[in-house]
Amino acid sequence: MRKIWPFMLVGAVLLLGIAGSALVLQRPDTNIVEIVQDGNVLHRLNLAETEDQIIEVEYDGRINTIEISDHRIHMLEAECPDKTCVGMGWLDSAAPIVCLPNHLVIQFSDSDALDAAAG
Ligand SMILES: [Zn+2]
């Protein structure tokens, strides 16, 4: 019996960790999305107000095609080797869509800078 306790403890810690990360990965309370390349914000959009459109971003001759449709955003196509970013689907949580080969990140903004600038 004594030897079981450490495993239960590890299990409990793991469960807490999973619950914690699920909390963190919920969609942030914002509609502001940033398209970031190499740390530079190329586009900052309010999904609630942005019309359906296609945004192309180039990195080193390779094109990432980002689609905004029905107030959602995803990577439609990418000229990258792994296509992981395309497979990530629609952005709907705090977990960003990342294209590592093309240094591109699509993420919800943690600031309301767009609103501040507009108002
Ligand atoms: Zn990619």
Distinct small-molecule ligands in the complex: zinc ion
CATH topology: mini-chromosome maintenance (MCM) complex, domain 2
| DSSP helix fraction | 25-40%
> How are helices and strands ordered from N to C?
HEEEEEHEEH
Tell me the strand order in the biggest sheet: 2-1-7-6
Counted up, domains total 1
Main β sheet profile: 4 strands, antiparallel
Mean pLDDT across the residues is: 89
- Assigned CATH class: Mainly Beta
CATH architecture descriptor name: Sandwich
Q: Strand content of the residues, in percent?
A: 35-45%
Residue windows where pLDDT falls under 50 for at least 5 positions: none
Envelope shape: elongated
Ends apart, CA distance between termini:
64 Å
Please give the number of β-strands: 7
- State the secondary-structure class: alpha+beta
Helix count?
A: 3
Task: Output the radius of gyration.
Answer: 18 Å
What does this structure look like?
Helix content is 26%, strand content 36%. It has a 4-stranded antiparallel sheet. A 3-stranded antiparallel sheet has the order 3-4-5. The chain is built from 3 helices and 7 strands, in the order αβββββαββα. A hairpin with a 2-residue loop joins strand 1 and strand 2 (40-46). The termini are far apart. The mean pLDDT is 89. The protein has one domain: Sandwich (mini-chromosome maintenance (MCM) complex, domain 2), CATH 2.60.320. The structure holds zinc ion (ZN).
